[in-house]
Each structure stands twice: as C-alpha cells, then as structure tokens.
Amino acid sequence: MTTQDARERLELLQGTLDLLILRTLIFGSQHGQGIARAIQQTSDEELLVEHGALYPALQRLEERGWISAKWGISANNRKARFYSLTPVGRKQLVKETSKWNRLTAAIGRILESEEG
C-alpha cells in the first residue's frame, strides 16, 4: 500500500466499528485479528481497523453482553480470544443496522438535494 492509498482510506465514523464487528460475527466466531481482516477484505480494502480501536471496542461489546469471548487456538497455532455474537448482540445488530440505514438515507437525501 502506498502513502497515497493510506491518505485516501476511509475513516470509520464513531459508532460504526461496533456495528461492523457485530455484523462480522454473524458469520461465526472469530479472533480479533480475523475480525479486523474480515472488515478490511469485505470493504475492498477501504477500511482498516487499527488495534488501538479494535480491542477497546471488543471489550466494550463484551461488557454490554453483545458478544462473548473464550480462549482457543488460531489457525497459526497460537492462543487467541475468539469472539461470538450473543442473542442480545443479534438483537442489537438489527437495531444498529436500522439506525445506520436511516442515517445514511437521511444524509443521502441532503447530499442529493438541489438546495444543498
């Protein structure tokens, strides 16, 4: 990745990381690095989740009961915490997705308005 690519990478809006983590975990449990990699790959390399943001978000989601964690062995034979979506987290994912869709629709209307 070039310096130009890094400057043009999209920054996550506050609150969106939680939504992206919950959405990623709907496909099954994953360790932190796997979650970050999945978000990056699914976004076509547009979103890069920094460790300094990822692990506090995972801890926050676990404290809220939206995800659970347990120790396991990763594909490269290392000890890692694997995170899973809880039933409460699934409900929260639906709520957060709805809020996100409303927000993006409202912003889209403003950006597309002729008076704007």
Question: How would you describe the overall organization of this protein?
Answer:
- The structure is a single chain.
- With 116 residues, the protein is an alpha+beta fold.
- It has one domain (3-112): Arc Repressor Mutant, subunit A.
- 57% of the residues lie in helices and 14% in strands.
- It is built from five helices and three strands.
- A three-stranded antiparallel sheet has the order 1-3-2.
- Helix 2 (16-25) packs across helix 3 (32-42) and helix 2 packs across helix 5 (87-112).
- The longest helix is centred in the last third of the chain and has 26 residues, at 87-112.
- It is globular, with a radius of gyration of 16 Å.
- The termini are far apart.
- The relative contact order is 0.15.
